[in-house]
Design a protein that fits this description.
The protein is of the alpha/beta class and about 325 residues long. The protein contains 12 helices and 11 strands. The protein has a 7-stranded mixed beta sheet with strand order 6-7-8-3-9-10-11, sandwiched between helices. Strands 2-1-4-5 form a 4-stranded antiparallel beta sheet. Helix 4 packs across helix 5 and helix 5 packs across helix 7. The longest helix is centred in the middle third of the chain and has 18 residues.
Length: about 325
């Protein structure tokens, strides 16, 4: 369904050119849930914003190929992207308070998207909004449809954003850390909702997060990103049971174990991600890696098909 090849996103800044995404490639199949994980600043959100055509900064440069069902998206006009975005491809944004307009009711905002893509009346669109709010388990949807965003809790606002994304039954749904600002119980409800909606609507989903626990819960396949590049990809079971890249191992080691002896202190990844303006030569993770050796002064390639790793220690 979605095929991304050698995607690069660069931004001109006063300090220099920031290559936020550097040669990223991945595929998403029909009905699949692909997880994208990594620390903040690893390029997860920027990659998918490029897919959605939402990077409009005049200082940004985007190269590579983004193909949706055989149609190349890079180079489409803003008008052509608007026809596609929301109808065929939709996005759940990370912060629902900023994704929703505060001066309009949530029902009006959902209905607006429906009417932008379908030839229906305002009354029919509002009824569809009520049905969608009920589908995402919002109590009293006929009453909630007339509420403003500030009158809803964080979990309810996130459900509204999900309802809006699903309003035109998109084939591909991008979820940008939709559970980050929610407490654990609401987070579990949202994850259950995402799985249910994927089953009912048959949508493919790209789920962005920095939480490996969330990935263990819902993903079919995963890609791990670091400093704008994919360092490992494969089936969820493979990455959790036998991680190969040192960064993937470090992410998993930082999670409290569910069984066995409780560690006195969790293992932290030393150092911090590199400055992408003055990116160090060679492997970007090398300064923080316990397995570093001489070869790491060169840039490792992502080697493999279904299971791929960019690490000299693994691919030697």
């Amino acid at each position: 369904m979605l095929r991304v090849r050698d995607l690069t996103v660069s931004f001109r800044t006063e300090q220099g050119v920031v290559r936020a995404v550097d040669g990223v490639s991945f595929d998403v199949a029909e009905g699949e849930l692909l997880g994208v994980v990594g620390e903040s600043g690893s390029g997860k959100t920027v990659s998918l914003l490029a897919v959605m055509g939402l990077i409009t900064d005049p200082n940004a440069t985007i190269t590579g190929s983004i193909s949706y069902r055989g149609r190349e998206l890079l180079g489409l006009s803003a008008k052509e992207m608007r026809k596609l975005r929301g109808k065929e491809v939709a996005m759940i944004f990370q912060d629902p308070m900023t994704a929703l307009t505060p001066v309009y009711t949530v029902g009006w905002q959902i209905a607006e998207q429906i009417r932008a893509h379908e030839n229906v009346s305002q009354a029919a669109a509002l009824q569809r909004a009520v049905d969608l709010l009920a589908e995402v388990n919002i109590p009293n949807p006929r009453e909630a449809v007339n509420r403003y965003p500030h009158q809803l809790s964080g979990g309810m606002r996130q459900r509204v954003v999900i309802a809006m994304a699903l309003s035109c039954n998109p084939a591909l749904l991008v979820a940008d850390e939709p559970t980050t600002a929610l407490d654990v119980t609401v987070q579990a409800q949202i994850l259950d909702l995402v799985r249910k909606l994927q089953k009912n609507h048959g949508s493919a989903i790209v789920f962005i997060t920095h939480d490996m626990g969330v990935m263990a819960e819902i993903a079919d396949r995963m890609i791990v990103m670091y400093a704008g590049r994919v360092v490992e990809r494969g089936r969820k079971e493979d990455l959790f049971l036998s991680p190969r890249h040192p960064y993937t191992k470090a992410l998993l080691d930082s999670i409290p174990p569910l069984s066995g002896e409780k560690p006195r202190r969790l293992k932290a990844i030393p150092g911090s991600p590199p400055n992408l303006v003055n990116r160090p030569p060679g492997c970007a993770f090398a300064p923080r890696c316990r397995q570093r050796f001489e070869k790491c002064d060169a840039e490792p390639m992502l080697i493999g098909e279904k299971r791929a790793v960019a690490c000299f220690a693994v691919n030697a």
